[in-house]
Amino acid sequence: MSGFVFNEKPIQIERGDGAYVYDDSGTEYLDMGASYACVPLGHGHEAVQSAVAEQLEKITYVQASYPNAERTALYDLLADTAPDPIDKTWLCNSGTEANEAALKFARSATGNSKIVATMQGFHGRTMGALATTWKNKYKKPYEPLIGDVEFVPYDDADALDEAVDEDTAAFIVEPVQGEGGINPTSPGYLEAAREITEDAGAALIFDEVQTGMGRTGALWNSQRADVAPDMITSAKGLGNGLPIGATLCRDWIAENYGSHASTFSGGPVISAAAGATVSTIVEDDVPENAAAMGEYLQTELEAAIGDEVRDIRGEGLMIGVEVGRGANKALKQLALNHGILALPAGRTVVRLLPPLTIEESHADEVVEAMTEVVG
Ligand SMILES: *Cc1c(COP(=O)(O)O)cnc(C)c1O
């Protein structure tokens, strides 16, 4: 094989429809990872497909320094649906770039350099975002990364209070850690983070690349916690499968962002895809379904396998099942014996991030399979 970065799995996916994907021999799989949370509306959603097709007919790309109607509409839609007073948007092409921009904006707007990040956190793989990512394996071969990053234990307000000082540009945090094992925060932690950063004049960045787009039961997890950070970063599900990232900012950040740009920022096709994705999520009350189905799935899993596994946790349709060292074996069995594609989160957790449009029957399918695999 001529590619060299991915350790590819022995299933070649050819097409998708809703919560299901099909391999090249026609075998059906329930996509319980939503292809890494990238298709919140399921595969091939009509509204997104037709928005993209219509835009392709008009123009594929125009230089980002000219406005285009699709991008302007997306800016407005994100401003309308973000927690107040966040109403400025920077668009890019991925999660790591959205975080990279957030870190640059925070340094520029505060004049400070220190970044505080969390242990077990994941923010992407470009040099800046990577420096705020916890896992050494991802960082070691590429050092030195950007300096002045301090890590604090996740969900520990006292440790955060100690780390954030008058030299701090930003605290970056996932409101629910994804890659780190599906770790929700305790009540009061995000509020405390808001207070601590505000007192120090530092920017609070919520990395919602995975928690956003309705996954945890509100369009943004920030709205569930009722905390408005200074920046929210998004990507993964934002284009329902097409590549886009966003850094949503308060005015004081946007007014002092420095000098930053990207060639493909908010091209018309991707903006049409994201616009259709966000408006469908809002109009169809998709976050409500995520909340209800998440509760149903967690409750049913607890009843069926609660005694066999170490822990079942999460918010909305972002669920982790702590199965111990056998997580990879469990994932393989789920795929090959039960036709269910799930994801790992570290070595011990089976991660479920299905499309947010799933119904009880899909959840039942997963519970039955998990019962056989870990029971
Ligand atoms: C996936 C992810 C990223 C990185 O996004 P890419 O599009 O892969 O660069 C950053 N933060 C979180 C929380 C993620 O889940």
Automatic annotation (TrEMBL):
The keyword Translocase does not apply. One of its GO terms (biological process) is L-arginine biosynthetic process via ornithine. The modification N6-(pyridoxal phosphate)lysine is found at K236. Substrate binds at R125, S262. The keyword Cytoplasm applies. It comes from the Archaea. Pathway: Amino-acid biosynthesis; L-lysine biosynthesis via AAA pathway; L-lysine from L-alpha-aminoadipate (Thermus route): step 4/5; Amino-acid biosynthesis; L-arginine biosynthesis. Binds 1 pyridoxal phosphate per subunit. Pyridoxal 5'-phosphate binds at G95, T96, F122, D207, E208, V209, Q210, T263. Its EC number is 2.6.1.118, 2.6.1.124. PANTHER family: ACETYLORNITHINE AMINOTRANSFERASE, MITOCHONDRIAL, AMINOTRANSFERASE CLASS III. Involved in both the arginine and lysine biosynthetic pathways. This is Putative [LysW]-aminoadipate semialdehyde/glutamate semialdehyde transaminase. The lineage of its organism: Archaea, Methanobacteriati, Methanobacteriota, Stenosarchaea group, Halobacteria.
